[in-house]
Structure formats: C-alpha cells, structure tokens
Amino acid sequence: MPTIRPLLPGDNDDDWARVYELQCRVYPPEWHEDVPVLRQKATVGNGFCFLYQDQGELMGYCLAHPWASGQVPKLNAVVKEATAPVTTDNLFLHDLAVATPKQGIGKRLFQHLQQQQQQQQVQPNKGRIKSMSLVAVNGSHSFWTKLGFQRATPLDPECLQSYGSDAAFMVLSL
Ligand SMILES: CC(C)(COP(=O)(O)OP(=O)(O)OC[C@H]1O[C@@H](n2cnc3c(N)ncnc32)[C@H](O)[C@@H]1OP(=O)(O)O)[C@@H](O)C(=O)NCCC(=O)NCCS
C-alpha cells in the first residue's frame, strides 16, 4: 500500500540519493539541484517535505518551504535557514515530481501538503499560511491550474530566467 512520509534533512543518504535520481530523471540537467541544496530545503521546510513510496519504491516527492510571497529562490542555491523568511505567511512549493505521471500521485502529494499546511496553522508560534506560490515548468501549468493556482507576476520577473523559457510564477490564495 502506498504511503506518504515526511522527508527530513537527517534522513539517510539513500533516501536523498533516490530523490536526486528521480529529479534527474524528470528534469533537464540545467535544473538539477545538488543533494546538499535539496537537503537544506527540508531543514527550512520542516513539515512540508514528503516522499511517496509504494512497497519501498520512491514514486514521488514534494519539497516546500516558507518563503516571502512574490519572491522566487534561485535554482540550486542553498536556502539558508538564517536568511530564509521563515515567518512569512507564504509557502513556496519548490518541487513536486512523480515517477509515473497521470496516476493521481501528484494530486495526492499536493493534497497532503495542504493538510500539513492546515495543521501548521493551529500550532502555537506558527503564523497562518495565507498562500502558496511556485514556478510552473516542464509543461506543468495545466496541472497546477487544476489545483487552483493562478498565474501571477513575481516581484522580480528576472528571477524566472533560470527556470526556462516556459516558466510561469503561480499563486494559490488559501
Ligand atoms: C506535473 C506532475 C507532478 C503531475 O503529477 P501527476 O501525478 O502526473 O498528476 P495527477 O495524475 O495527480 O493529475 C492530477 C490532474 O492533473 C492532470 N494533469 C496531470 N499532469 C498534467 C499536465 N501535464 N497537463 C495537464 N493536466 C495534467 C491530470 O489529468 C489530473 O486531472 P483530473 O484530476 O481532472 O483527472 C508530473 O507530471 C511530474 O512529476 N512531472 C515531472 C516533474 C515536473 O515537471 N513537476 C512540476 C514542476 S513545477
């Protein structure tokens, strides 16, 4: 039976190697992020990063972390906890990828993220998350539109350049 479990920065190297391998399978080389960069997202995004596994096999992952609304982090750059705007009311969905598309896994991972986001709201000392943002790439705009995201203009449109020519900043108000 498939399971979704938290992906933590301290998880063993095999887990991170498999996330890296799946990332390399679904994206062209210019978008690949190194394992230390991926791990750091799980530090800043504690509680918002997950693995989808079926019989031990990695079928998908989701990496999200708090980030200032309207801003886009650089690709393959370490998101430092000290400088990350962790008090922001926006969650940046950095990456969601599946091994076998069109089987409902992407939607389930996203729904799980939404559940976590709703639970985080009721914990003490956590600001209420009011929106999610992302950069849609790889022909995924329609997928995100189905989930309620709408195209928006980032504060610095030039920051989208490293994400490719079809990149679109998208936002979901919660
Ligand atoms: C984009 C991605 C995450 C979608 O995940 P998925 O598991 O294939 O999506 P699901 O099967 O959950 O589909 C959910 C809905 O979106 C639709 N959908 C999925 N991919 C779509 C696409 N590329 N274009 C249009 N609709 C799409 C499905 O038909 C389904 O519609 P329905 O609810 O009306 O039946 C997946 O294709 C993927 O991993 N792509 C490579 C990595 C990537 O590009 N990630 C996005 C980075 S921004």
UniProtKB/TrEMBL annotation:
GO MF term list: acyltransferase activity, transferring groups other than amino-acyl groups
Alphabetical list of Pfam families matching this protein = Acetyltransf_1
Record domain N-acetyltransferase: where: 2-174
Its protein name is: Gcn5-related n-acetyltransferase
The taxonomy runs: Eukaryota, Sar, Stramenopiles, Ochrophyta, Bacillariophyta
